[in-house]
Amino acid sequence: xxxxxxxxxxxxxxxxxxxxxxxxxxxxxxxxxxxxxxxxxxxxxxxxxxxxxxxxxxxxxxxxxxxxxxxxxxxxxxxxxxxxxxxxxxxxxxxxxxxxxxxxxxxxxxxxxxxxxxxxxxxxxxxxxxxxxxxxxxxxxxxxxxxxxxxxxxxxxxxxxxxxxxxxxxxxxxxxxxxxxxxxxxxxxxxxxxxxxxxxxxxxxxxxxxxxxxxxxxxxxxxxxxxxxxxxxxxxxxxxxxxxxxxxxxxxxxxxxxxxxxxxxxxxxxxxxxxxxxxxxxxxxxxxxxxxxxxxxxxxxxxxxxxxxxxxxxxxxxxxxxxxxxxxxxxxxxxxxxxxxxxxxxxxxxxxxxxxxxxxxxxxxxxxxxxxxxxxxxxxxxxxxxxxxxxxxxxxxxxxxxxxxxxxxxxxxxxxxxxxxxxxxxxxxxxxxxxx
Length: 436
What we know:
Elements: H1 6-16, E1 22-26, H2 33-38, E2 43-49, E3 66-73, H3 74-83, E4 91-99, H4 106-109, H5 113-121, E5 129-130, E6 135-139, E7 142-147, E8 150-155, H6 169-175, E9 177-182, H7 187-197, H8 199-211, E10 220-223, H9 229-237, E11 244-248, H10 251-263, E12 270-274, E13 287-293, H11 301-311, E14 312-323, H12 337-343, H13 359-366, E15 369-381, H14 387-398, H15 402-418, E16 423-434
Parallel strand pairs: 1-2, 1-8, 2-3, 3-4, 8-9, 10-11, 10-13, 11-12, 13-14
Antiparallel strand pairs: 5-8, 6-7, 7-9, 14-16, 15-16
């Protein structure tokens, strides 16, 4: 069903499960923003659980029914401080003493979130109670799992949290008929899949694959496979000649990666393994080459590079690509220099020991990798639909005043009409040889 919008898909799930009205909780507000605008009568209470970024505009009219749960610090805490002044009627609960990033396991770290959500949703507009058995299925490309009894509560995926909502379900299902959604059209999975389809992105990854200088049957490791989109491209690029092991720290993402590979008949081409980039569960010299794409921003990069060098044999090649927060984004819009200065800086979600700048080159070289290629790479997105554009746009809009937002939207409309709109994002790429 390629022509369905995300709102169409969500409403199809509602119809299939006979949901006339529901509470909904999300960490990715863009998953539900158009549903909120198009069918507000289908939604009662809304929980925004520590969004990494969002455009609050669709939620302002419903702010009295919105609960915003915010970490005290970290990137997710800073996002809340930017967003909440634009939704003064929303209820705020701050998770004191908790600093969080989009990859943190918030449901494990703060199990009290379940009681906070239950308390808020019980105080807003009523939703019909539903009793039913535990069921699973798929509708319009969205998979669902329903359990519990009570008013319907729909959960869209958390960002990169390894456990997703699972630790909270025992409590939530005591109060609600909980419908947990998943699939490639939702949350960060949608971002990873759309990003991997960009021509510039595929060219960047293909260049890294080629630079590994692989011979047939040489073993390759991918660190941080996410949705499996890059692993699938690697298999296609090498026509299956090279056995690939792909690791990720998230059971949720690994499950989605396996599902996508199976749907394309590639399950025998990739071995998906639950593991951390900082502690690889493989013997020394187990692989002939390795690559990692936009992962070392979110971990201890020095430790991860050391682990890559340990598991790749001497003479093998390693490719590392990271987001470049030290390179500006170019928004091809007729906007003022003042607005451009505010929105050209990309969101800086980076772990304390992660790397998302040109420091990658020195870090990898200092670790002992012999550099063969080092370069920045710019990827462009020419569509305004979907998370590749909408996520950075939400961050950009949050930096602007209401008058500047109006000017931005007018400029965007003009660029869309003229067919000249695009957005770029920079990356740093390092390819080097293991010397031991």
